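Work Package 4 report. The design task specified in the project plan requires that, given a folded chain encoded as structure tokens, an amino acid be chosen for each position. We show below one input record used in the internal validation round.
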């Protein structure tokens, strides 16, 4: 069983449509894929409709959170997407991405970059708007060579010259909201140093005590010693450990299934969740 529990589609900052994503997941030999767009569940219906036979979809989202000034991402799985309080909070976070992106565009213009709001809006379409869309505009303009190159102090990295903050959830609130909606929480890439400050051990212990279910260990942004240390820590704290690609289509150089989750851990996640069931593919139609 090959299980990839963290991917993005065009519903946020991935480049595959949800239908393309599930077809690519099937072609990559995955048995289970989770669609976890940033603060959005909008891609789920299309992914379900296009789901190939033999592939199971885990519905989810990656929630933008902030802990002591550090941006952290919380993966949420198999929650009830209609639960009103969590639905409202996701919308608040998503909606605030628009004025925040406008503010980053203005900062770039003030730095002399000939970027326009129309360009960013065209790239993002109706996606949950993020820095990778602005980074793509910077690539188009020849300001940087790759999306990744835009994530520096010169441009869009946290605290960078053109960075603007967005509304983000407190991770303890996120855990409560996801649980209330019957879902399971896994802290995404907690030791990804290149994204800025990492989550300290004491905070992980606090999150575990607050009901966090697991941590993402096998992720391209964690080197081997980091993974080993995280695995030990997770063992001590009674947390599940997952692995995933964090696939973003062509916006990132990582393949579906680059890292995977143990089937036993996946089984435990599905047993804990009460908000939604994994969706087995029936051999969907093209979208
Ligand atoms: P935002 O949600 O708008 O704050 O943008 C954060 C997103 O940008 C992350 O979820 C990643 O998808 C992407 N990202 C962050 N750091 C990098 C990086 N160094 N290279 C490429 N993409 C990045
Ligand atoms: Zn992303
Ligand atoms: Fe993330
Ligand atoms: Fe992600």
């Amino acid at each position: 069983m090959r299980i990839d529990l963290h991917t993005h589609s065009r519903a946020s900052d991935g480049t595959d449509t949800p239908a393309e994503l599930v077809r690519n997941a099937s072609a990559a030999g995955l048995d289970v894929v989770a669609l976890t767009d940033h603060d959005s569940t909008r891609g789920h219906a299309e992914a379900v409709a296009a789901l190939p036979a033999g592939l199971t979809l885990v519905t989810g989202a990656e929630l933008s959170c902030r802990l002591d000034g550090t941006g952290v991402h919380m993966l949420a799985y198999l929650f009830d997407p209609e639960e009103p309080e969590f639905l409202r909070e996701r919308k608040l976070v998503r909606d605030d991405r628009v004025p925040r992106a406008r503010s980053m565009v203005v900062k770039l213009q003030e730095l002399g970059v000939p970027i326009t709001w129309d360009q960013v809006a065209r790239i993002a379409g109706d996606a949950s708007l993020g820095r990778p869309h602005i980074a793509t505009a910077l690539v188009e303009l020849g300001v940087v060579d790759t999306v990744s190159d835009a994530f520096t102090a010169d441009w869009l990295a946290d605290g960078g010259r053109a960075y603007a903050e967005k509304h983000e959830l407190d991770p303890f609130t996120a855990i409560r909201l996801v649980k209330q909606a019957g879902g399971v929480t896994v802290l995404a890439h907690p030791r990804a140093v290149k994204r800025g400050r990492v989550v300290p051990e004491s905070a992980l212990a606090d999150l575990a005590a607050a009901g966090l279910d697991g941590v993402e260990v096998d992720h391209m942004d964690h080197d081997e010693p980091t993974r080993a240390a995280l695995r030990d820590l997770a063992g001590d704290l009674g947390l599940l450990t997952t692995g995933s690609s964090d696939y973003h289509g062509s916006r990132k150089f990582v393949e579906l299934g680059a890292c995977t989750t143990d089937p036993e851990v996946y089984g435990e996640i599905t047993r804990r969740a009460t908000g939604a069931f994994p969706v087995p593919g029936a051999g969907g139609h093209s979208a």
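Residues 84 and 181 are 9 Å apart (CA to CA). Validation will be extended to a larger panel in the next phase.
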